[in-house]
Design brief:
The chain is of the alpha/beta class. It is built from 18 helices and eleven strands. β1 and β2 form a beta hairpin. α2 crosses α4 and α3 runs parallel beside α7.
Length: about 500
Amino acid sequence: MTEQTTRPRPSPAVLALIASAFVVATCGLVYELLAGTLASYLLGDSVTQFSTVIGAYLFAMGIGSWCSRYVTRDELRLFVRVEILIALIGGCLAAVLFLLFPVVDHFRIALYALVLGVGFLVGLEIPLLLRILRADFEFRDLVSTVLTFDYVGALAASLLFPLLLMPHLGMIRTGFLFGLANVGVALALMWMLPSSARLGMEKAAGILVALLLAAGFIGAERLQRLAEVAAYEEPVIYAASTPYQRIVLTRGGDDLRLFLNGNLQFSSRDEYRYHEALVHPAVGRVARPAHVLILGGGDGLAAREVFRQPGVKTVTLVDLDPEMTRLFARSPMLARLNKGALTDPRLKVINADAFRWVRDARGPYDAIIVDFPDPTDFSVGKLYTKTFYQQVRKLLAPGGMMVVQSTSPLVAPNAYWTVATTLEAAGFTTRGYHVYVPSFGEWGFVLAANGPIGDAVRVPDGGRYLTSFEASRLFDFPPDMARRPAPVNRLDNQALVREFADEWGRYEG
């Protein structure tokens, strides 16, 4: 008989090394998701940003794995150093990029340098871990065990990031938290392994990095404010991250400005031009606009203008972010701007995704105001698709009128006319018009109805800009903004998002 040899049960230190595969995998994917999300947030076009960031990250991981073959000794020391470096660079990635964005000309270089650096180091982790553990496991058991923990860690990161981390911690705090997890792995291993006595320099470095990351986690909101102070021309008076967006208010003198995810939504000096032009050419063409639906418009400024129209009995406002509607309802300064529209007893606020809400909603509504942010990514672009407009059309009463804010026909004429083409593909009759808003430049809107759109319009007294005469002039387009062939924006192509990004990208240089 042959005597079967069995390996001794793994020691606590070896089990800790195996468990570290779970932690480092979770951290590695979180850094990848952070970089992709942050690039989409700052640069727009989420598909392009995620594709290029993930591609660069995986490529760098491959280079890191390939380079690990040249490590022939002292794998534990190198693994600990790699964990400390990943903790430092990956943990600070979001904070550094937010701080750099407003002050560097070539932001993408900094973005991809950090992505490649973190990816390269993450690529070293698993090969080093396998070499460290090779004396304690059979090869097949070693590979299957480490990769199992690695893949489970990736699953944990993919679930935690959208459901818990982004809504409750935000990008900067999430980066610091997982940097602490990485450095925690290094410190735990140095504490548990007998050979760690010779890693004095690494212990000191790990403790310093841990203290730095802890300080960053505590001061994350202050770091965010520093980045915003550099990004905005006027002092920031309010800033908050919600599960849906970053809300920033600035004030310089009598000018109050709202930014969502870094994009200007209005300036109090001239927002009346935008909102009077948005609302009255549509609602003023309806004989009896008793019931009005506003999609978007969580600041209450469109609702303010709707209530100026005679005969309005109810207004339903559907906005995704409850923090937005609460802020503009409860802040005395902001409520003065919208004249208390969000607390008017005739108004009902529904905080929901409009794309889903319209599928189950019941009309009819005499007028529908569609005031969404610009289609900078596919999550917003779906609200400009034929599918969405077909659902909204079912809510419009006979003789009713709808209007859609549609970006600048001067800066982005292809994107602007894509909105009109898409509305027509959904069955609407359309008429485009535009207005000059100093904060935005020439800005466009599209009227849509289930029948002919006439010229007669009722403009209430008391406005600061729009009159019946001025309203009639909005529909004239000079040659550089004139109608041109444009595609239909569908859910499966999102042509509008690409057109918008290309045209505004060229304009902004």
